[in-house]
Design goal:
Blueprint: H1 2-15, E1 27-30, H2 37-49, E2 54-56, E3 64-69, E4 78-84, E5 91-98, H3 111-126
Parallel strand pairs: 1-2, 1-3
Antiparallel strand pairs: 3-4, 4-5
């Protein structure tokens, strides 16, 4: 009886899908986002990852996909993005950032340009091997 239970536990472990660590992701696809946020994110990924993470132009060639979530057309002072698996079934990472200058009534254009570095910095920290 103990052998049957042990075999079932072992089989369950083999069939259980675990998300790959973020540090294993080497190529991502960045979906189009409002107000050119996707372009700012792509630029920041290149700056902060120095080639350790590559942005690909086709989702089919990516280890993960970055999607914009909760990005308002009128509010350009904050954004939430998610990194999901290529099938879109699992959220691997999620980050939210805001334009700090907007809190001080410094209403300038280009909030996305200020948000992108914060989001990519969060992702960079999350992708560090533990």
């Amino acid at each position: 009886m103990k052998q049957v239970i042990a075999a079932l536990i072992l089989a369950a472990g083999l069939f259980a899908q675990s998300a790959a660590p973020l540090s294993n992701i080497k190529k991502i696809y960045v979906e189009q986002m409002p107000n050119n946020l996707s372009q700012y994110l792509t630029s920041e990924i290149s700056k902060q990852f120095h080639g350790n993470l590559t942005v690909v132009l086709q989702a089919s060639g990516a280890d993960a996909i970055m999607k914009g979530v909760n990005i308002g057309a009128q509010d350009t002072t904050s954004a939430t993005v998610q990194l999901v698996d290529p099938n879109g079934e699992k959220v691997l990472w999620s980050g939210t950032a805001g334009d700090r200058s907007a809190k001080f009534l410094d209403m300038k254009h280009g909030g996305e340009e200020k948000i992108a570095p914060h989001l990519v910095s969060q992702l960079h920290k999350a992708m560090q091997p533990k």
